[in-house]
Amino acid sequence: MQYPKTTSTTAVLLILLLAGAVSPDTSARLVQPLYERIAEGPKQQRAKEQMRQERWEALETLARLGDTNSMNRVVSHLLNPVDERLPELPADSSRAWQLLEDAAARGSFWAAYSLWNGGRWSLEQLEDQPGAISFPEVVAGARDRESLTAD
């Protein structure tokens, strides 16, 4: 996070200012960009959230249209490359399940499996979900994945 770094940098500049090693004008010029970066943080977060929302909406639209190639691309953008988890699942989990069902119904195993894998849903959750029988490949892939991680 930038806050501890910014705080420590500000503290060092304040000590130098008090010691007379840095002029007040120089200190202000050095500290101002740090405070501007802190102020930009919430704006960037809102922009990221809006982009995620737009991607979910795009995925829903593509699922309705049956465009599985584009669905796969959108799913890969939704997945966080660091830990392969979805950055934020929709607040309404039924929406995510509907996307899974749509992806599977259209034969897009990769999109369905990626959504399940990205959300880290358990096999039990997957099997207990109404309509789970509509994506047996996802359940089979989940069993394979869980058997690999259990070893």
Structural summary, described in words:
By secondary structure, this protein is mainly α. The protein has one domain (about 1-150). Helices cover about 75% and strands about 0% of the residues. The chain has helices spanning about 1-20, 25-65, 70-80, 95-105, 110-120, 125-130, 135-150. Mean pLDDT is about 60; it is low at about 80-90.
Label this structure with key terms.
single chain; mainly alpha; rod-shaped; 151 residues
Please outline the helices and strands:
Layout (H helix, E strand, L loop, with lengths): L1 H18 L4 H42 L2 H11 L14 H13 L3 H11 L3 H6 L7 H15 L1
Helix pairs in contact: 1-2, 2-3, 3-5, 4-5, 5-7
User: Per the principal axes of the C-alpha atoms, what is the gross shape?
Assistant: rod-shaped
Largest sheet: none
Rg, Å, rounded: 23 Å
Low-confidence stretches: 80-91
Q: Please report the number of helical segments.
A: 7
Mean pLDDT across every amino acid position:
60
- Strand % is under 5%
List the secondary-structure elements in sequence, H or E. HHHHHHH
Question: How many angstroms does the end-to-end distance come to?
Answer: 36 Å
Structural class of the helix and strand makeup?
mainly alpha
What share of the residues lie within helices? over 70%
* DSSP, total strands: 0
Oligomeric nature of the chains: single chain
Short description:
Helices cover 77% and strands 0% of the residues.
